Amino acid sequence: VHIQLSEKNVLHINAKTRNDAMFAQGLLTAEMRLWQMELQRRLGQGRLSEFVGPLALPTDKLMRTLGFFEKTIQDIKALDTEAYEALESYVNGVNAYINRKPTLPLEMQLLGYQRMAPWTMADSLVWSKIMSYDLSGNLKFEIQRFNLLLKGLSLDRIDELLPKFNTSHFPTVLTMEDIKDGKVPIGKLD
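Above: the chain's sequence. Below: its structure in token form.
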């Protein structure tokens, strides 16, 4: 495995196999982001208050009620072989770094943290559920629209009562139609 950090601090990993690259990615992620990883793991497990104190109890209760971590453990069983092996390699890389007993990040030291528990597949995957939840900020709005639809209102009437977010004044994700119509020439996205 060959690892290089470019002048712009972009990490490049060259490996003979995908699993070797994933191992290196896990090791380097742990080296560079151990504090963030531990914080995110505890958030996903509903154990943040053990780390930062009682102010995090409401967040822990929410995370445990939502059951993201337990669901993530079940989801691991459904991974295909290729995804499972890649994730396993990544986790092995993280644990290789943790097993070196590195000097913990300052944030962890200030909180009196002594050591870090081994990393698991669920620790890695739970963050995708948290991100999905975080990106569902319009959930209540969508439920309101759905309830109006169930009450028999037409979509046009619902749009009058609860207009959708106007994306015409804000950048959005480009569609293939945008590119095909020439609205954004390929190669001119910056």
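Residues 26 and 91 are 6 Å apart (CA to CA).
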